[in-house]
Design a protein that fits this description.
This protein is mainly alpha-helical. The protein has helices at residues 3-17, 20-40, 46-69, 73-87, 96-110, 118-129, 135-147.
């Protein structure tokens, strides 16, 4: 079963169970998936779906920060709930040690020696770690290893 089919099944389950909040969160995800399919005129695979889910989670986190700054805790809690729903479709997150090992391996494979080689290393890591690690933290780790 593809990730997209699983999401569709979960929408139906939420509708049958009367879980309106979960149903609405999943419908937003399906709308984003459909929009991407229409824009690119292709059927999305699991990696594409994970990338979209990751993007939606990032948007929710940014919204939470803004809502909390504005004193709207109710809206922040709603966004937090949606993150919880979306998180179920992300692959298992890597541990810090696994991320560090992948970074070290990518630096060796790319033959990177200086911070100017960071683009080559990040290009190799993006495909491997996307959706499984915070790419901002990965970038900081790569920068630290190349600078040191």
């Amino acid at each position: 079963m593809t990730l997209k089919q699983r999401i569709n099944d979960d929408v139906k389950s939420a509708m049958r169970g009367g879980d309106a909040r979960k149903r609405d969160a999943l419908r937003l995800l399906l709308a984003a998936l459909k929009q991407r399919e229409v824009d690119e005129r292709k059927e999305l695979g699991d990696p594409d779906v994970v990338a979209i889910v990751d993007k939606l989670i990032k948007q929710r986190r940014e919204s939470i920060a803004q809502f909390e700054k504005g004193g709207r805790q109710d809206l922040a809690q709603n966004e937090q709930f949606e993150i919880g729903v979306l998180q179920a479709y992300m692959p298992q997150a890597l541990t810090g040690a696994e991320i560090e090992a992948a970074v070290t391996e990518a630096i060796a494979a790319a033959g990177a020696k200086a911070p100017s080689d960071m683009g080559k290393v990040m290009g190799a890591l993006k495909g491997k770690l996307a959706g499984r690690a915070d790419m901002g933290k990965v970038s900081a780790l790569v920068k630290a290893k190349l600078a040191g």
